[in-house]
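**Reference record**
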Amino acid sequence: MQLDLSVVGAILGVSWIVAEYLVKIIAIGVVPENRRPSSSSAWLLLILFVPIVGIPLFLMLGSPYINHRRARIQADADELLHEGADELPDVPPSLQAPREFVSIAQLGRRLTALPMVTGNSHGVISDYEASIERMAELVDEAREYVHVEIYIMAWDSTTDVFFRALERAAARGVKVKVLFDHIGSRKYPGFHRLGRRLTKVGIQWHLMLPFIPWRAKLRRIDLRNHRKLLVVDGKKAMMGSQNMIDSSYLQKKNVAIGRHWHDIMVELSGPIVAAVEAVFATDWYSESGEALGIRTYDGEFHEADVGGATSAMQLVPSGPGFTTEPNLKVFTSLMYLAQTRLAIVSPYFVPDESLLAAVITAARRGVDVELYVSEKADQFMVDYAQSSYYRSLLEAGVRIFLYPKPQVLHTKCFVVDDEYAVMGSSNMDMRSFGLNYEISLLTTGGDLVDDITEVVADYERASRELSLEEWEQRPLIRRYLESVMRLTSALQ
Protein backbone atom coordinates (compact mmCIF):
# COMPACT_ATOMS: atom_id res chain seq x y z
CA MET A 1 0.00 0.00 0.00
CA GLN A 2 2.90 2.27 0.83
CA LEU A 3 4.41 1.57 -2.59
CA ASP A 4 1.12 2.33 -4.32
CA LEU A 5 0.89 5.73 -2.61
CA SER A 6 4.44 6.52 -3.61
CA VAL A 7 3.70 5.62 -7.22
CA VAL A 8 0.55 7.75 -7.19
CA GLY A 9 2.49 10.65 -5.69
CA ALA A 10 5.20 10.31 -8.31
CA ILE A 11 2.65 10.19 -11.10
CA LEU A 12 0.91 13.30 -9.76
CA GLY A 13 4.20 15.13 -9.39
CA VAL A 14 5.29 14.29 -12.93
CA SER A 15 1.83 15.17 -14.26
CA TRP A 16 1.99 18.55 -12.53
CA ILE A 17 5.42 19.29 -13.99
CA VAL A 18 4.32 18.21 -17.47
CA ALA A 19 1.13 20.31 -17.23
CA GLU A 20 3.06 23.33 -15.97
CA TYR A 21 5.58 23.18 -18.79
CA LEU A 22 2.83 22.56 -21.32
CA VAL A 23 1.02 25.69 -20.14
CA LYS A 24 4.26 27.68 -20.31
CA ILE A 25 5.02 26.45 -23.83
CA ILE A 26 1.49 27.39 -24.94
CA ALA A 27 1.82 30.81 -23.26
CA ILE A 28 5.00 31.58 -25.20
CA GLY A 29 3.05 31.14 -28.42
CA VAL A 30 -0.24 32.71 -27.34
CA VAL A 31 0.63 35.71 -25.14
CA PRO A 32 2.65 37.74 -27.71
CA GLU A 33 -0.09 37.58 -30.37
CA ASN A 34 -1.22 41.11 -31.32
CA ARG A 35 0.45 42.51 -28.22
CA ARG A 36 3.24 45.06 -27.80
CA PRO A 37 6.62 43.55 -26.76
CA SER A 38 6.71 45.18 -23.30
CA SER A 39 3.28 43.78 -22.44
CA SER A 40 4.19 40.34 -23.75
CA SER A 41 7.40 40.26 -21.72
CA ALA A 42 5.63 41.30 -18.52
CA TRP A 43 2.90 38.69 -18.90
CA LEU A 44 5.35 35.94 -19.79
CA LEU A 45 7.53 36.73 -16.78
CA LEU A 46 4.52 36.49 -14.50
CA ILE A 47 3.23 33.29 -16.09
CA LEU A 48 6.61 31.55 -16.26
CA PHE A 49 7.80 32.42 -12.76
CA VAL A 50 4.53 32.59 -10.80
CA PRO A 51 2.08 30.49 -12.87
CA ILE A 52 -0.40 30.04 -10.02
CA VAL A 53 -0.94 33.84 -10.13
CA GLY A 54 -0.06 34.66 -13.72
CA ILE A 55 -2.31 32.18 -15.50
CA PRO A 56 -5.60 33.15 -13.77
CA LEU A 57 -4.78 36.84 -14.14
CA PHE A 58 -4.07 36.45 -17.84
CA LEU A 59 -7.31 34.56 -18.40
CA MET A 60 -9.24 37.35 -16.64
CA LEU A 61 -7.35 40.40 -17.89
CA GLY A 62 -5.09 39.32 -20.72
CA SER A 63 -7.09 40.37 -23.75
CA PRO A 64 -7.35 44.11 -24.46
CA TYR A 65 -10.44 43.59 -26.58
CA ILE A 66 -13.98 43.90 -25.29
CA ASN A 67 -16.61 41.21 -25.65
CA HIS A 68 -18.10 40.35 -29.03
CA ARG A 69 -21.33 42.31 -28.48
CA ARG A 70 -19.53 45.57 -27.79
CA ALA A 71 -17.14 45.01 -30.69
CA ARG A 72 -20.14 44.54 -32.97
CA ILE A 73 -21.76 47.72 -31.63
CA GLN A 74 -18.57 49.66 -32.37
CA ALA A 75 -18.49 48.24 -35.90
CA ASP A 76 -22.13 49.25 -36.44
CA ALA A 77 -21.38 52.73 -35.10
CA ASP A 78 -18.48 53.08 -37.51
CA GLU A 79 -20.86 52.43 -40.38
CA LEU A 80 -23.28 55.06 -39.05
CA LEU A 81 -20.41 57.54 -38.72
CA HIS A 82 -19.63 56.99 -42.39
CA GLU A 83 -23.23 57.80 -43.27
CA GLY A 84 -22.98 61.20 -41.64
CA ALA A 85 -19.54 62.14 -42.88
CA ASP A 86 -18.70 60.39 -46.15
CA GLU A 87 -19.48 63.48 -48.23
CA LEU A 88 -17.14 65.70 -46.22
CA PRO A 89 -13.49 66.31 -47.11
CA ASP A 90 -10.76 65.07 -44.78
CA VAL A 91 -10.09 68.62 -43.58
CA PRO A 92 -12.02 71.91 -43.91
CA PRO A 93 -11.38 73.46 -47.37
CA SER A 94 -10.24 76.75 -45.83
CA LEU A 95 -7.55 75.12 -43.64
CA GLN A 96 -4.06 76.22 -44.57
CA ALA A 97 -1.84 73.50 -43.12
CA PRO A 98 1.25 71.57 -44.19
CA ARG A 99 0.76 68.32 -46.04
CA GLU A 100 2.33 66.46 -43.11
CA PHE A 101 -0.40 67.64 -40.76
CA VAL A 102 -3.18 66.91 -43.24
CA SER A 103 -1.89 63.33 -43.46
CA ILE A 104 -2.30 63.00 -39.67
CA ALA A 105 -5.92 64.19 -39.94
CA GLN A 106 -6.41 61.62 -42.69
CA LEU A 107 -4.92 58.97 -40.42
CA GLY A 108 -7.38 59.91 -37.69
CA ARG A 109 -10.25 59.64 -40.11
CA ARG A 110 -9.18 56.20 -41.34
CA LEU A 111 -8.93 54.96 -37.77
CA THR A 112 -12.20 56.44 -36.44
CA ALA A 113 -14.32 57.46 -39.49
CA LEU A 114 -14.44 61.05 -38.19
CA PRO A 115 -13.12 63.81 -40.46
CA MET A 116 -11.62 67.09 -39.34
CA VAL A 117 -14.33 69.76 -39.38
CA THR A 118 -14.69 73.27 -38.06
CA GLY A 119 -15.77 74.27 -34.60
CA ASN A 120 -15.91 77.26 -32.32
CA SER A 121 -14.24 77.28 -28.93
CA HIS A 122 -15.98 79.37 -26.31
CA GLY A 123 -13.05 79.13 -23.95
CA VAL A 124 -10.93 76.65 -22.05
CA ILE A 125 -11.95 76.59 -18.39
CA SER A 126 -9.27 75.64 -15.86
CA ASP A 127 -11.18 76.69 -12.74
CA TYR A 128 -12.70 73.48 -11.36
CA GLU A 129 -15.88 74.91 -9.82
CA ALA A 130 -16.37 77.39 -12.68
CA SER A 131 -16.46 74.59 -15.24
CA ILE A 132 -19.17 72.76 -13.28
CA GLU A 133 -21.16 75.97 -13.03
CA ARG A 134 -20.80 76.56 -16.78
CA MET A 135 -22.05 73.05 -17.52
CA ALA A 136 -25.05 73.77 -15.29
CA GLU A 137 -25.72 77.01 -17.20
CA LEU A 138 -25.67 75.15 -20.52
CA VAL A 139 -28.12 72.58 -19.16
CA ASP A 140 -30.42 75.41 -18.07
CA GLU A 141 -30.43 76.59 -21.70
CA ALA A 142 -31.54 73.17 -23.01
CA ARG A 143 -34.87 72.93 -24.79
CA GLU A 144 -34.81 69.44 -26.33
CA TYR A 145 -32.25 67.13 -24.78
CA VAL A 146 -29.14 66.84 -22.64
CA HIS A 147 -26.58 64.05 -22.97
CA VAL A 148 -24.04 63.57 -20.18
CA GLU A 149 -21.23 61.01 -20.15
CA ILE A 150 -18.66 61.31 -17.37
CA TYR A 151 -16.35 58.66 -15.94
CA ILE A 152 -16.79 59.51 -12.24
CA MET A 153 -20.00 61.08 -10.96
CA ALA A 154 -20.96 61.96 -7.38
CA TRP A 155 -23.79 64.18 -6.21
CA ASP A 156 -22.03 66.30 -3.59
CA SER A 157 -22.05 69.91 -2.41
CA THR A 158 -19.83 71.02 -5.32
CA THR A 159 -21.68 69.16 -8.07
CA ASP A 160 -25.17 69.86 -6.68
CA VAL A 161 -25.48 72.91 -8.96
CA PHE A 162 -25.09 70.64 -12.01
CA PHE A 163 -27.47 67.92 -10.84
CA ARG A 164 -30.07 70.52 -9.89
CA ALA A 165 -29.83 71.91 -13.43
CA LEU A 166 -30.42 68.40 -14.79
CA GLU A 167 -33.42 68.10 -12.47
CA ARG A 168 -34.86 71.40 -13.70
CA ALA A 169 -34.33 70.36 -17.31
CA ALA A 170 -36.17 67.07 -16.81
CA ALA A 171 -39.01 68.92 -15.05
CA ARG A 172 -39.58 71.18 -18.04
CA GLY A 173 -39.73 68.23 -20.46
CA VAL A 174 -36.15 68.08 -21.67
CA LYS A 175 -34.95 64.52 -22.31
CA VAL A 176 -31.94 64.00 -20.03
CA LYS A 177 -29.69 60.97 -20.49
CA VAL A 178 -26.75 60.26 -18.20
CA LEU A 179 -23.92 57.71 -18.37
CA PHE A 180 -21.28 57.10 -15.71
CA ASP A 181 -18.73 54.34 -15.24
CA HIS A 182 -19.66 51.62 -12.76
CA ILE A 183 -16.26 50.72 -11.33
CA GLY A 184 -14.93 54.26 -11.66
CA SER A 185 -17.78 55.78 -9.63
CA ARG A 186 -18.75 53.10 -7.14
CA LYS A 187 -16.08 53.81 -4.51
CA TYR A 188 -17.22 57.39 -3.92
CA PRO A 189 -19.80 58.51 -1.33
CA GLY A 190 -23.43 58.42 -2.47
CA PHE A 191 -22.90 56.00 -5.37
CA HIS A 192 -25.58 53.55 -4.26
CA ARG A 193 -28.12 56.37 -3.96
CA LEU A 194 -27.14 58.22 -7.13
CA GLY A 195 -29.18 56.11 -9.53
CA ARG A 196 -32.28 56.34 -7.36
CA ARG A 197 -31.91 60.13 -7.08
CA LEU A 198 -31.60 60.47 -10.86
CA THR A 199 -34.59 58.24 -11.48
CA LYS A 200 -36.67 60.16 -8.94
CA VAL A 201 -36.22 63.45 -10.82
CA GLY A 202 -36.99 61.92 -14.22
CA ILE A 203 -33.49 61.38 -15.60
CA GLN A 204 -32.66 58.34 -17.70
CA TRP A 205 -29.31 56.82 -16.73
CA HIS A 206 -27.12 53.77 -17.24
CA LEU A 207 -23.90 52.46 -15.84
CA MET A 208 -21.05 52.18 -18.30
CA LEU A 209 -19.26 48.82 -18.43
CA PRO A 210 -21.20 47.43 -15.45
CA PHE A 211 -19.73 44.48 -13.57
CA ILE A 212 -22.74 42.85 -11.88
CA PRO A 213 -22.30 39.05 -12.08
CA TRP A 214 -25.61 38.28 -10.35
CA ARG A 215 -27.37 40.13 -13.19
CA ALA A 216 -25.33 38.33 -15.85
CA LYS A 217 -23.33 41.47 -16.57
CA LEU A 218 -19.81 40.12 -16.81
CA ARG A 219 -16.77 41.66 -18.48
CA ARG A 220 -13.12 42.38 -17.89
CA ILE A 221 -13.16 44.20 -14.58
CA ASP A 222 -10.19 46.43 -15.47
CA LEU A 223 -11.85 48.08 -18.49
CA ARG A 224 -13.15 51.63 -18.00
CA ASN A 225 -15.12 54.21 -19.95
CA HIS A 226 -12.99 57.24 -19.11
CA ARG A 227 -14.75 59.80 -21.32
CA LYS A 228 -16.06 63.15 -20.08
CA LEU A 229 -18.55 65.01 -22.25
CA LEU A 230 -21.76 67.03 -22.28
CA VAL A 231 -24.02 67.75 -25.27
CA VAL A 232 -26.96 70.18 -25.17
CA ASP A 233 -29.55 70.18 -27.99
CA GLY A 234 -26.83 69.15 -30.47
CA LYS A 235 -25.62 72.77 -30.50
CA LYS A 236 -23.25 73.08 -27.57
CA ALA A 237 -20.81 70.60 -26.08
CA MET A 238 -18.18 70.46 -23.37
CA MET A 239 -15.38 67.93 -23.05
CA GLY A 240 -12.05 67.55 -21.32
CA SER A 241 -10.45 65.83 -18.34
CA GLN A 242 -12.73 66.75 -15.43
CA ASN A 243 -14.98 64.34 -13.57
CA MET A 244 -18.27 65.35 -11.94
CA ILE A 245 -17.12 65.23 -8.32
CA ASP A 246 -15.64 67.64 -5.78
CA SER A 247 -12.01 68.49 -6.52
CA SER A 248 -10.95 66.68 -3.32
CA TYR A 249 -12.60 63.51 -4.64
CA LEU A 250 -14.41 63.40 -1.29
CA GLN A 251 -11.52 61.67 0.46
CA LYS A 252 -10.80 62.69 4.06
CA LYS A 253 -7.05 62.40 3.52
CA ASN A 254 -7.20 64.74 0.54
CA VAL A 255 -9.21 67.29 2.50
CA ALA A 256 -6.80 67.07 5.43
CA ILE A 257 -3.69 67.74 3.33
CA GLY A 258 -5.36 70.18 0.92
CA ARG A 259 -5.10 67.97 -2.16
CA HIS A 260 -7.24 69.00 -5.13
CA TRP A 261 -7.46 67.87 -8.74
CA HIS A 262 -6.71 70.41 -11.51
CA ASP A 263 -8.37 69.95 -14.91
CA ILE A 264 -9.48 71.73 -18.06
CA MET A 265 -12.72 71.63 -20.05
CA VAL A 266 -13.55 73.33 -23.34
CA GLU A 267 -16.93 74.60 -24.54
CA LEU A 268 -17.63 73.94 -28.22
CA SER A 269 -20.18 74.77 -30.88
CA GLY A 270 -20.39 74.21 -34.63
CA PRO A 271 -20.03 71.00 -36.67
CA ILE A 272 -17.62 69.41 -34.17
CA VAL A 273 -20.56 68.97 -31.77
CA ALA A 274 -21.98 66.30 -34.09
CA ALA A 275 -18.85 64.19 -33.56
CA VAL A 276 -19.10 64.52 -29.77
CA GLU A 277 -22.75 63.55 -29.96
CA ALA A 278 -21.92 60.52 -32.11
CA VAL A 279 -19.60 59.21 -29.39
CA PHE A 280 -22.36 59.55 -26.80
CA ALA A 281 -24.87 57.83 -29.08
CA THR A 282 -22.53 54.86 -29.48
CA ASP A 283 -21.97 54.49 -25.74
CA TRP A 284 -25.66 54.96 -24.93
CA TYR A 285 -26.57 52.20 -27.37
CA SER A 286 -23.86 49.98 -25.88
CA GLU A 287 -25.38 50.24 -22.42
CA SER A 288 -29.10 50.62 -23.10
CA GLY A 289 -29.77 49.05 -26.48
CA GLU A 290 -31.57 52.25 -27.52
CA ALA A 291 -30.44 53.67 -30.85
CA LEU A 292 -30.37 57.46 -30.80
CA GLY A 293 -29.07 57.76 -34.33
CA ILE A 294 -26.00 59.68 -35.45
CA ARG A 295 -26.48 63.39 -35.98
CA THR A 296 -25.20 64.48 -39.38
CA TYR A 297 -23.02 67.52 -40.04
CA ASP A 298 -25.52 69.29 -42.30
CA GLY A 299 -28.62 71.26 -41.39
CA GLU A 300 -27.99 74.64 -39.82
CA PHE A 301 -24.27 73.98 -39.46
CA HIS A 302 -21.82 74.88 -42.20
CA GLU A 303 -18.07 74.89 -42.57
CA ALA A 304 -16.94 78.34 -41.49
CA ASP A 305 -13.54 79.60 -42.56
CA VAL A 306 -10.76 78.55 -40.20
CA GLY A 307 -9.30 81.46 -38.24
CA GLY A 308 -10.19 83.70 -35.33
CA ALA A 309 -12.83 82.05 -33.19
CA THR A 310 -13.17 79.15 -35.65
CA SER A 311 -10.70 76.27 -35.45
CA ALA A 312 -10.21 73.08 -37.40
CA MET A 313 -11.10 70.23 -35.03
CA GLN A 314 -11.08 66.47 -35.15
CA LEU A 315 -12.45 64.21 -32.45
CA VAL A 316 -10.34 61.11 -31.83
CA PRO A 317 -12.32 58.49 -29.91
CA SER A 318 -10.43 55.41 -28.79
CA GLY A 319 -10.81 52.33 -26.64
CA PRO A 320 -11.14 48.54 -26.71
CA GLY A 321 -13.80 48.82 -29.40
CA PHE A 322 -11.08 50.12 -31.71
CA THR A 323 -8.38 47.55 -32.44
CA THR A 324 -6.02 50.16 -33.93
CA GLU A 325 -5.28 52.42 -30.90
CA PRO A 326 -6.25 55.68 -32.67
CA ASN A 327 -5.07 57.98 -29.88
CA LEU A 328 -1.61 56.40 -29.70
CA LYS A 329 -1.07 56.57 -33.46
CA VAL A 330 -2.29 60.16 -33.80
CA PHE A 331 -0.29 61.30 -30.75
CA THR A 332 3.00 59.77 -31.90
CA SER A 333 2.53 61.09 -35.45
CA LEU A 334 2.04 64.62 -34.11
CA MET A 335 5.15 64.35 -31.94
CA TYR A 336 7.26 63.40 -34.92
CA LEU A 337 5.85 66.49 -36.65
CA ALA A 338 7.33 68.80 -33.97
CA GLN A 339 10.10 71.13 -35.13
CA THR A 340 10.54 73.68 -32.36
CA ARG A 341 8.49 72.80 -29.26
CA LEU A 342 6.58 69.90 -27.74
CA ALA A 343 4.82 70.52 -24.40
CA ILE A 344 3.07 67.54 -22.76
CA VAL A 345 0.78 67.65 -19.73
CA SER A 346 -0.21 64.27 -18.32
CA PRO A 347 -1.03 63.02 -14.83
CA TYR A 348 -0.05 59.48 -15.80
CA PHE A 349 2.94 59.36 -18.15
CA VAL A 350 3.71 55.67 -18.60
CA PRO A 351 4.40 55.47 -22.35
CA ASP A 352 4.75 52.46 -24.57
CA GLU A 353 7.86 52.02 -26.71
CA SER A 354 6.54 54.00 -29.68
CA LEU A 355 5.46 57.05 -27.67
CA LEU A 356 8.66 57.09 -25.61
CA ALA A 357 10.69 56.90 -28.81
CA ALA A 358 8.72 59.81 -30.32
CA VAL A 359 9.33 62.01 -27.25
CA ILE A 360 13.03 61.18 -26.90
CA THR A 361 13.63 61.46 -30.64
CA ALA A 362 12.05 64.91 -30.67
CA ALA A 363 14.38 66.02 -27.88
CA ARG A 364 17.40 64.54 -29.67
CA ARG A 365 16.39 66.40 -32.84
CA GLY A 366 16.69 69.68 -30.96
CA VAL A 367 13.00 70.21 -30.24
CA ASP A 368 12.33 71.91 -26.90
CA VAL A 369 10.42 69.13 -25.12
CA GLU A 370 8.62 69.83 -21.84
CA LEU A 371 6.79 67.32 -19.66
CA TYR A 372 4.42 68.52 -16.93
CA VAL A 373 3.49 65.99 -14.24
CA SER A 374 2.44 66.00 -10.61
CA GLU A 375 5.30 66.08 -8.12
CA LYS A 376 3.57 63.13 -6.48
CA ALA A 377 0.91 61.18 -8.38
CA ASP A 378 -2.28 60.24 -6.58
CA GLN A 379 -1.73 56.54 -7.29
CA PHE A 380 1.22 54.68 -5.73
CA MET A 381 1.94 52.34 -8.63
CA VAL A 382 1.62 55.08 -11.24
CA ASP A 383 3.87 57.41 -9.25
CA TYR A 384 6.74 54.92 -9.35
CA ALA A 385 6.08 53.56 -12.84
CA GLN A 386 5.97 57.08 -14.26
CA SER A 387 9.15 58.23 -12.55
CA SER A 388 11.03 55.19 -13.85
CA TYR A 389 11.20 57.04 -17.20
CA TYR A 390 12.59 60.29 -15.82
CA ARG A 391 16.28 59.44 -16.17
CA SER A 392 16.12 58.51 -19.86
CA LEU A 393 13.97 61.57 -20.55
CA LEU A 394 16.30 63.95 -18.71
CA GLU A 395 19.37 62.47 -20.38
CA ALA A 396 17.74 63.07 -23.77
CA GLY A 397 17.20 66.74 -22.90
CA VAL A 398 13.51 66.64 -21.92
CA ARG A 399 12.66 69.29 -19.33
CA ILE A 400 10.47 67.84 -16.59
CA PHE A 401 8.28 70.22 -14.57
CA LEU A 402 6.79 69.02 -11.29
CA TYR A 403 3.43 70.47 -10.29
CA PRO A 404 3.74 70.97 -6.52
CA LYS A 405 2.32 68.35 -4.19
CA PRO A 406 -0.16 67.70 -2.73
CA GLN A 407 -1.98 69.02 -5.82
CA VAL A 408 -2.87 66.60 -8.63
CA LEU A 409 -2.32 67.86 -12.17
CA HIS A 410 -5.08 65.90 -13.91
CA THR A 411 -5.14 67.81 -17.22
CA LYS A 412 -4.37 65.82 -20.36
CA CYS A 413 -3.10 67.89 -23.28
CA PHE A 414 -0.10 68.60 -25.45
CA VAL A 415 0.99 71.35 -27.82
CA VAL A 416 3.18 71.01 -30.92
CA ASP A 417 5.09 74.06 -32.22
CA ASP A 418 2.33 76.28 -30.77
CA GLU A 419 0.40 75.42 -33.95
CA TYR A 420 -1.34 72.15 -33.09
CA ALA A 421 -2.84 70.93 -29.84
CA VAL A 422 -4.63 67.93 -28.35
CA MET A 423 -6.78 67.88 -25.21
CA GLY A 424 -9.29 65.48 -23.73
CA SER A 425 -9.58 62.49 -21.42
CA SER A 426 -6.65 60.38 -22.61
CA ASN A 427 -3.56 60.00 -20.47
CA MET A 428 -0.14 59.20 -21.90
CA ASP A 429 -0.15 55.67 -20.59
CA MET A 430 -0.77 52.16 -21.83
CA ARG A 431 -4.11 51.94 -20.02
CA SER A 432 -5.49 54.90 -21.98
CA PHE A 433 -4.15 53.48 -25.23
CA GLY A 434 -5.52 49.96 -24.82
CA LEU A 435 -7.99 49.55 -21.96
CA ASN A 436 -9.95 52.79 -21.50
CA TYR A 437 -12.58 54.35 -23.73
CA GLU A 438 -11.29 57.90 -24.32
CA ILE A 439 -11.96 60.99 -26.41
CA SER A 440 -9.36 63.52 -27.51
CA LEU A 441 -9.72 66.70 -29.54
CA LEU A 442 -7.09 67.56 -32.15
CA THR A 443 -7.13 71.20 -33.21
CA THR A 444 -5.29 73.79 -35.25
CA GLY A 445 -6.04 77.27 -36.53
CA GLY A 446 -8.31 79.63 -34.63
CA ASP A 447 -7.69 80.51 -31.00
CA LEU A 448 -8.12 77.18 -29.19
CA VAL A 449 -4.44 76.29 -29.56
CA ASP A 450 -3.51 79.63 -27.99
CA ASP A 451 -5.84 78.97 -25.06
CA ILE A 452 -4.33 75.54 -24.43
CA THR A 453 -0.83 76.99 -24.74
CA GLU A 454 -1.69 79.57 -22.10
CA VAL A 455 -2.88 76.83 -19.76
CA VAL A 456 0.50 75.11 -20.16
CA ALA A 457 2.23 78.43 -19.40
CA ASP A 458 0.21 78.69 -16.18
CA TYR A 459 1.38 75.22 -15.18
CA GLU A 460 4.99 76.17 -15.90
CA ARG A 461 4.73 79.19 -13.63
CA ALA A 462 3.33 77.03 -10.83
CA SER A 463 5.84 74.19 -11.20
CA ARG A 464 9.50 73.58 -10.43
CA GLU A 465 11.93 71.97 -12.86
CA LEU A 466 13.55 68.64 -12.03
CA SER A 467 17.25 68.32 -12.84
CA LEU A 468 19.13 65.14 -13.70
CA GLU A 469 21.53 65.82 -10.82
CA GLU A 470 18.66 65.97 -8.32
CA TRP A 471 17.04 62.86 -9.73
CA GLU A 472 20.24 60.82 -9.48
CA GLN A 473 20.25 61.38 -5.72
CA ARG A 474 17.05 59.40 -5.11
CA PRO A 475 17.44 56.38 -2.76
CA LEU A 476 18.05 52.83 -3.98
CA ILE A 477 14.75 51.55 -2.60
CA ARG A 478 12.89 54.03 -4.80
CA ARG A 479 14.85 52.90 -7.85
CA TYR A 480 13.93 49.30 -7.10
CA LEU A 481 10.24 50.14 -6.71
CA GLU A 482 10.30 52.12 -9.96
CA SER A 483 11.54 49.06 -11.84
CA VAL A 484 8.92 46.80 -10.27
CA MET A 485 6.05 49.20 -10.97
CA ARG A 486 7.29 49.78 -14.52
CA LEU A 487 7.04 46.05 -15.15
CA THR A 488 3.56 45.74 -13.67
CA SER A 489 2.33 48.73 -15.70
CA ALA A 490 2.84 46.66 -18.87
CA LEU A 491 0.44 43.93 -17.74
CA GLN A 492 -2.44 44.51 -20.14
